[in-house]
Amino acid sequence: MPLASLPAFEAAARHQSFSRAAEELNLTHGAISRAVAQIEERLDCALFVRRNRRVYLTRAGERLLAATGTALDGLGRAIEEIHRHDVASPILTVSCEPSLAMRWLMPRLGLFRENNPDLHIDLRLAGGPIDLLQDGCDIAIRRNDFGISDDYHVTHLWTERAGPVCDPDCWETILGRDLSRARWLHSRTRPDAWEVWKKASHYQGLPASEQYFDHFFFALQAAVNRLGTAIGPLPLVQDDLVAGRLIAPLGMAVTGFEYVLITLDGPSRDQRIGRFFDWLMIQAAEMVAPG
């Protein structure tokens, strides 16, 4: 079996198109066709039926596709796992929730780079469940509001605290220090943020009006821009609180969630991860919750 031809066959079979396979693999249509022909010649059977300029898998083709897909996936995972444990690699690939990355992590990564010039952070913005091997990431930073596979090592970073945040002048002059007079800003990516805070703080009031945004980051930015009051969790609003752009007039309540580091093994198993984890914990220790 010409093993070098299998990726071309797998792509053609998956797309049921030689042209789309050629585009994906950056090859010519003729190269895909020759690769498939080599396999068909070795197996002495047809893998595709060609009709009206389209190709369809035969039963033999379907069986080979299933086996090839499994084999290529296994090879890919093995290669990724080898890379994951290559502690000499100068690159650490970090997956982080977008709002946390943009409002807290990215402003601090310059300091990490200054102190660790030999380690490059490849930052990828994503939230929710993750497959570290398939997604090509060394670690993920997540809010633990979803189920995490037992295959991963989960390390606590910090407990989430959150509370209403708004412009300080708005709180004093427009709202008269009364949250029920505020426009409450919501996010479709975290629609229960207000309810979680109300339960944690035992607040019973209702808003004067409400506004919805597609992403949590936008709701927080709208609060900075005096468009209303949002639920601001630490550390996402830490810099705004320190700079005085926002205040948390009712303080911060523990929400019951936490931020965690997700890795294949414990942070100490990989010195790159260990260095980044230690730095994260130093940054987390500097967070100060108001109220």
Detailed description of the structure:
With 291 residues, this protein is of the alpha/beta class. The termini are far apart. The mean pLDDT is 89. It has helices at 6-15, 18-25, 29-43, 59-84, 98-115, 132-135, 168-174, 193-201, 216-224, 238-243, 271-285, and strands spanning 48-51, 54-57, 91-96, 120-125, 139-143, 153-165, 183-187, 209-213, 229-233, 253-263. An eight-stranded mixed beta sheet has the order 4-3-5-10-6-9-7-8, sandwiched between helices. Strands 1-2 form a two-stranded antiparallel sheet. Strand 3, helix 5 and strand 4 (120-125) form a beta-alpha-beta unit.
How far apart the termini lie comes to 69 Å
Oligomer: single chain
Mean pLDDT score? 89
Secondary structure: helix percent: 40-55%
Order of helices and strands: HHHEEHEHEHEEHEHEHEHEH
Q: Provide a count of the helices.
A: 11
Shape annotation: elongated
Structural class: alpha/beta
In spatial order, strands of the major sheet run 4-3-5-10-6-9-7-8
Please provide the count of β strands.
10
> β content, as a range?
15-25%
Q: What's the gyration radius in Å? A: 26 Å
